[in-house]
Amino acid sequence: MSFHPLESVTGAVLIPALVMLIPIHYGALLVVLTVMTIMGVTNHMGWEIFPDRLVRGPAGKWLITASHHQRHHEKYLCNFGLYFRFWDRLCGTDRGLGTFETLPAAGQRSLRETGHEVGQLP
Questions:
Q1: Which of 69, 70, 99, 121 has the fewest other C-beta atoms within 10 Å?
Q2: What is the DSSP letter of 30?
Q3: What's the distance, CA 11 to chain centroid?
Q4: Distance between first and last Cα of the chain
Q5: Exposed (0-12), middle (13-18) or buried (19+): which is 74, by Cβ within 10 Å?
């Protein structure tokens, strides 16, 4: 399981509770939820949606991208951030960018099938 069910429940309750406690314009809430959804989807697609110059450039040092979040899925004890790398840096959990396993050509086995780690040459 990628996260605890209690985490899911608290996430589903937290936003509606905050909306009831803190006045927020409907349009602002829509923007926040849209950004959250887009970042959640793009960070878990298994490939990088942003151009390499953004990911490896100055903006990539601050923003969470799929390449950064991939390292979290490779190592699990690092790169916890959702949108910005600030907290990972502050807490010492920023481990840089991850790599994506490329799809094997027809008739070839993937790196995982050969027993090699992602990012390790066979």
A1: 121
A2: H
A3: 17
A4: 29
A5: middle
